[in-house]
Amino acid sequence: MLTAHDFPSAHAADTSGIEVILVGDSLAMVALGLPDTNSVTLEDMLVHCRSVMRGAQAAFVVGDLPMGSYELDARQATESAIRMVKEGGVHGVKLEGGVDVVEQIRGVTRAGIPVLAHVGLTPQRSSALGGFRVQGKNVAGAMKVLRDALAVQEAGAWGVVLEAVPAEVAALVTKKLRIPTIGIGAGAGCSGQVLVQVDMIGNYPPGRFLPKFVKRFGDVWGETTRAIAAYREEVKGGSYPADEHTYPMPKEEFAEFEKVVDDMSRTVGSEGKNE
């Protein structure tokens, strides 16, 4: 599982064999330049979901329900999820929370929309958790992760994201569930993994903060800046565009064009003198 936020990123993920694409609310930061995920709106998500769906041909696409679109009750969650499917085109939705969102999950699944749950560190609620902190580091915390995971399973979620949970806790929770777990900062004992695409491909310069669990599998920033710098230098130096980058015109046609332009210039010049 990998995130995508537009046509190119979806096309790259889909072509590379990613089975599940998440249109994550992380697009708030990586695509819109916003300070956090809570700044993104349902309308923003719909635009990006449509873009991703144009690039994804084989993957199952899940769209994040953003903060403010599902917390009130099952009706709000269901209405938002229906819009994500009908207007955004996605195949299912993801929402954050455990025991406290079971009614929302039931409502959305009753509408025939697959739900991916998300427990452990829930970024939309990070302020209530004391910031972006690992969850389940003690017995009480680990039990909460397990209870939340069991609750969303019973509510009808087809899977659950476990974020920022100790690896051994995530592995045990995975064994206790009938549904698959998708880990992000939760070790290799989960059923699958998810990362933010622009983080793992190295889309930003060295020094940008990345969570501990992110591995950079590429250096898109380095290749992008190299290519742009080369383009700038060739334009400044006059080597681009070269002949192979231009469209030819038959010599006789250009000669005729030059003659017409010269005649026009002489005519304009004569008119000026007559005045």
From TrEMBL:
Q: Which CDD domains match?
A: KPHMT-like (cd06557)
Keywords from UniProt, A to Z, are:
Methyltransferase, Pantothenate biosynthesis, Transferase
State the pathway, as annotated in the record: Cofactor biosynthesis; (R)-pantothenate biosynthesis; (R)-pantoate from 3-methyl-2-oxobutanoate: step 1/2
GO CC annotations on file: mitochondrion
A GO molecular function held by the record:
magnesium ion binding
Q: Which GO terms describe its biological process?
A: methylation; pantothenate biosynthetic process
UniProt KW ATP-binding keyword: no
Known catalytic reactions: (6R)-5,10-methylene-5,6,7,8-tetrahydrofolate + 3-methyl-2-oxobutanoate + H2O = 2-dehydropantoate + (6S)-5,6,7,8-tetrahydrofolate
Q: Where are the transmembrane segments?
A: none
Q: Which Pfam families match?
A: Pantoate_transf
Which domain of life does the UniProt lineage start with? Eukaryota
UniProt-listed Enzyme Commission number(s): 2.1.2.11
Quote the Gene3D superfamilies the UniProt record gives: Phosphoenolpyruvate-binding domains (3.20.20.60)
PANTHER family membership? 3-METHYL-2-OXOBUTANOATE HYDROXYMETHYLTRANSFERASE
Q: What does this protein do?
A: Catalyzes the reversible reaction in which hydroxymethyl group from 5,10-methylenetetrahydrofolate is transferred onto alpha-ketoisovalerate to form ketopantoate.
What HAMAP family does this protein's entry cite?
A: PanB
As for family, the record states:
Belongs to the PanB family.
What is the name of the protein in this document?
3-methyl-2-oxobutanoate hydroxymethyltransferase
Q: Which species? A: Cryoendolithus antarcticus
